[in-house]
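Task 17 of the worksheet. Students: predict the tertiary structure of the chain below and write it out as C-alpha cells. Keep your answer in the requested format; marks are given for formatting as well as content.
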Amino acid sequence: MSFVYVHTGFCNLNELDAAQTDGLIRYGSEVNGFASGIRFSKQESDPTVYFTNGDGSIGEGKLDAKQVRARETLIVNDVNVLDMLNNLKERMETLENN
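Model answer:
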C-alpha cells in the first residue's frame, strides 16, 4: 500500500450576501483535481447539505449508501417520488374496488 499526500480542509464559499455564504469540507488533492466535498447551506428557510466535486459545485457529487431515509419528501429529477407512489397506490385500490 502506498500513501499519497491528500489535502483536507474547511472553507467558506463567499457570496455577495452573507446569508448566501456556504461552508465546504473538502477531501482530495488540489494539485491533480481529484477531490470531493460536502457543502453546507445555512439558509434559514432551506438549510441543505450537498455532496460536491472538489470545487464545491452543487449537483456535481454522488451519494452511495445502503439506505437513505426521506422523512417528508423524496424528489428525483424534480418529481416527488413519495407523492407518485401514493397516487399509484390510490389508483390500484380504485381498480381493485371496481
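Marker's comment: DSSP finds one helix and six strands in the chain. Residues 41 and 48 are 5 Å apart (CA to CA).
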